[in-house]
Amino acid sequence: MKEVKVNGNNILKSLTKLSVNNDTISELYSWKYENITTRCYGSYDGEAGFENKHELPPNGISNFLEEDSSEKLLFGDIFIARFKDDKLISTSISDYGEFYNLIFNDFDDCLSEEDINDDTEEEDSSDISESDGDYSYAEDDIDDNLDYDNTDY
């Protein structure tokens, strides 16, 4: 991740020039938090091997993409810009990190108690094995002995 400066007059043109893959850049998603709009620009179409590994925050709004922002596979470079009153404002990596954590924390708060219980039940059921039609708890081979560090420092 790196910070770049762009011209606020024609942001799509500036970002397309900055894109390493020279992909056509589009505004993909936006999120409103307090009085700031965060927008993600990038490419949603590309070749295998050029996928962008970053997971966007959930519940992004898109004018043309139907998938949730946290599930959509993106390609090449993605760019994050923030706006206040439709004017581009300076954004650092730490600003985006703070926004990202706030959005994900709000998303985690949306989980119902039933969702949390379902997750717990799934984890518990992974310890069960089937033997002759009956269920029994699988025995874990746990080695409680610690290895000795023989490294010369």
Structure write-up:
It contains three helices and seven strands, in the order H-E-E-E-E-E-H-H-E-E. With 153 residues, the protein is an alpha+beta fold. It has a domain at 11-109. Strands 1, 2, 3, 4 and 5 form a five-stranded antiparallel β-sheet that branches. The protein is globular. Residues 119-138 have low confidence and may be disordered.
Question: What are its keywords?
Answer:
153 residues; alpha+beta; five-stranded antiparallel sheet; two-stranded antiparallel ribbon; 25% helix; globular
Biggest sheet features: 5 strands, antiparallel
Rounded average pLDDT:
78
Structural class: alpha+beta
List the secondary-structure elements in sequence, H or E.
Answer: HEEEEEHHEE
Low-confidence stretches: 119-138
Rg calc:
23 Å
**How many distinct beta strands?**
7
**Helix amount:** 10-25%
**Oligomeric form:** single chain
Which geometry do the CA atoms define?
A: globular
Q: What percent strand?
A: 25-35%
Tally of contiguous helical segments? 3
Distance between the termini: 34 Å
Quick description:
This protein is α+β, with helices and mostly antiparallel strands.
